[in-house]
Amino acid sequence: MRIGDLAEKSGLSTDTLRYYEKIGLIPRPLRDGGGRRVYDRTILRWIEFLDRLKATGMGIRDRLRYAELRTLGSASLAERRRMLEDHRRKVAADIARLTETLGVLDDKVDLYRRMEAGETVDPAFESCARTEHGAPPIQDSSSHDSSSGARPRADSGP
Amino acid sequence: MRIGDLAEKSGLSTDTLRYYEKIGLIPRPLRDGGGRRVYDRTILRWIEFLDRLKATGMGIRDRLRYAELRTLGSASLAERRRMLEDHRRKVAADIARLTETLGVLDDKVDLYRRMEAGETVDPAFESCARTEHGAPPIQDSSSHDSSSGARPRADSGP
DNA sequence: TTACGGGTTGGAGTGCACTCCAGGTCAAGC
DNA sequence: GCTTGACCTGGAGTGCACTCCAACCCGTAA
């Protein structure tokens, strides 16, 4: 498999593949007679996994570290496992945050829909509506909830 | 509230707050006699919401657009709603992907744990193990699964 | 044999999202 | 009056993750 084929199969550009090789994310492949890179299919699985780590928010430093450990073979198993466990925790936390946000978005969409329909907004949502309305600069200190916390929405599940 | 207080309350740096103002993410605040920014508490809700959009993967362009729409008041309600609906879809897709990854990570951690214990790895996981082992370059075409697809793991639930 | 399509290299450029800095102003406390 | 600390401005610098480019090489089909 040459770089063009791998690019097509992996969804990365040839430039990106060469870049990943340069920084050490993927191993240097063999070359053919003409000096061109020849990849073996197993690289695809690795690229896919890297992509997954990236897509779930693992930065390049950690991916590099993981790639480096991988080249050390089984001696690095425990550390790789620890890295994955750490990452798992982060992913779980992200899911929680995203799920919470789903609720916030649903609430807001709902509110906007009702406002579009010309409906008077429930006082419980006033602060939210005002915030999202391009609030004219009001600098009094008398709005109806205190400065920190007390958001009246946001935690109704997805 | 001056910029330092807002920084403390919002968790952003004063530099970041000024930067957000410069690019138009947050409205220009009033100034006191000495030319210093004076914020009203409502800005915190907006910053919080922006942060949520950012944390859930909305890029700066879209956040800017949303901020711009916000300044237009109720005339932009429908478009803002559409933006949020679009974003909601992306967030839902992200959750799905993250959840899938949680499963992949669990499988891998499991596998590593067993390998650390010196256990012989189930043939069904061989490809995975090989991939994650710093596979020596094999360029035959006879490994046990065909080039595309057929991953024996990764889709067992969260 | 020549054109072409795909490969090679090193290095420069891009876009995002800040972050830092120099050099200055201002208000309050000692 | 002077120092201190928070603030001001414009602009430069940073780190990530590519992305593009010029100039070259190689193998194959027409």
List keywords for this structure.
homodimer; 158 residues; mainly alpha; Multidrug-efflux Transporter Regulator, Chain: A, Domain 2; 6 helices; 2 strands; elongated; DNA-binding
Describe this structure in words.
The first copy, chain A, is an all-alpha fold. Among the domains of chain A are: 1-57, Multidrug-efflux Transporter Regulator, Chain: A, Domain 2, CATH 1.10.1660; 93-135 and 151-158, no CATH class. Chain A contains 6 helices and 2 strands. Chain A has a two-stranded antiparallel sheet. In chain A, a hairpin with a 5-residue loop joins strand 1 and strand 2. In chain A, helix 4 packs antiparallel against helix 5. The first copy, chain A, is elongated, with a radius of gyration of 25 Å. The two termini of chain A are 45 Å apart. The model of chain A is unreliable at 123-158 (pLDDT under 50). The interface between A and B is large, with 62 and 62 residues. The structure holds a DNA duplex (30 and 30 nucleotides).
Helix-strand layout with pairing:
Two copies of one chain form a homodimer.
Chain A: H1 3-10, H2 14-23, E1 30-31, E2 37-38, H3 42-55, H4 60-71, H5 77-116, H6 126-131
Antiparallel strand pairs in A: 1-2
Chain A binds a DNA duplex (30 and 30 nucleotides) through α2.
